[in-house]
Design a protein that fits this description.
2 domains, 17 helices, 5-stranded mixed beta sheet
Length: about 475
Amino acid sequence: MRRSLGILGVMAWPLAVAGAQLTALPPTSAPAIDRLLTAIEESYRAKDANRFVSWFTNDFSQVDVNRRITITGIDAWRRQTENVNAAHREMARLHRGRIVHGNLVISEIEWSGTVRGDEFASGTRDRPYRFSGLGVMELAGGKIRRQVLFIDYASLREQLAAPAAQGPGQAPGRLIDVGGRQMHLHCLGRGGPTVIVDQGAGAWSTHWLHLHEALARESRVCLYDRAGVGWSEPAPSPATSERAARDLARLLQSAGERGPFVVVGHSYGGYVARVLRGMRPDLVAGIVLVESGHEDQWNRIPPPLTEITKGAVPMLREFAAAIRRGDSVPTQPVDSGYTNAGQRRLLEQFSRTPGPYEELADVVEAIDSSTAQVRRAGRLGDLPLVVVSARRSFDAFRHLPIDVAASNAVWHQLQSELVRLSSCSRHLWSESGDHNIQVTDPAIVVEGIRYMVRALSREPRSGCPLKG
């Protein structure tokens, strides 16, 4: 139980949303119990934390504080607010035979789950909660005749009122409203065309911070966080490439950024770039695909990679759930290529937030819909296109039980097919990088983006600007 009693709230059921309340309890036939409860209530009302704690330590030394009861989920929350006896019947059963002071039970209780966005004035998105309390209950006939719950309600209110940003500290860019939720956009530099970078599934703007300033010397460059990761708030499911493209279009418009843009898509971000082009061709001046996904890769990459990827969803969700419960989780390893201490610190901290794991699971679950949307987006015509690929892409996945050489060979074919999406294209190959090429060979990524920006910045000419 949390012992910072200065922020404890006291209430009786049903829950009073407006604030902590204390409802007077009717007298019982046991004067000792009445005196006990009254003393506890008075110590709380007096804000005498030491005395309050003493009731559950020294003065209650003869009282057995029984096992912790955890009630999880919004359904359980509603049952508690609607009917105390129904919600706590199982608790009474667990404590039978361990009653102290005749019919009095002292129990440590914990609630956790998710509150809908329209409850508790928590904003427009669902919010997780987790808080503790002590219950003093009088049982009669296996039911709770009366009770007072000393609940860390202030902690709940703090959680629901906390900034929606998933990451530590203040966002480096701006938080932009996109129809009732906020998304993070971080732009540097001047000049055009403006570059917008979209990263792989489960990644966020922090993964590209080491390239941001270098790219911004050439043009205005914006990093952003897709819904649910980094400093951006979650969005309703499903997490398809079309939803991400609509979010990006709305974000750029709401932020007042002027297009058309050079859209850089790494891995899954390549899907988003192509769908955005099909949806809003007016927004896209050119595309740079960096180790981009291909809509047919899930059928053509040798097994069992697809099965491994889709089979990881339950593990990803459990990891995210553990973080939300406040369980201790290991920091995910940060690629040694990230040498900046500040960037490494942010990456380590963000790896202990649920967003990247939830987004990756959501993306994988919706991948069939996303690939269908990419196919519907069609070819790119004569849109300027630069494809940056790694010959050793699958070396990044040597820890998996896959045929790395065969997977690399198929990847080469898929990347060459991406180049042929446009009649105005250029292909850059990295000999040393792997799938995380922005880290393992950042120079070639910068080269590809700068090449596109410079080509589009030249005086208008007839024909493909990439071949001028």
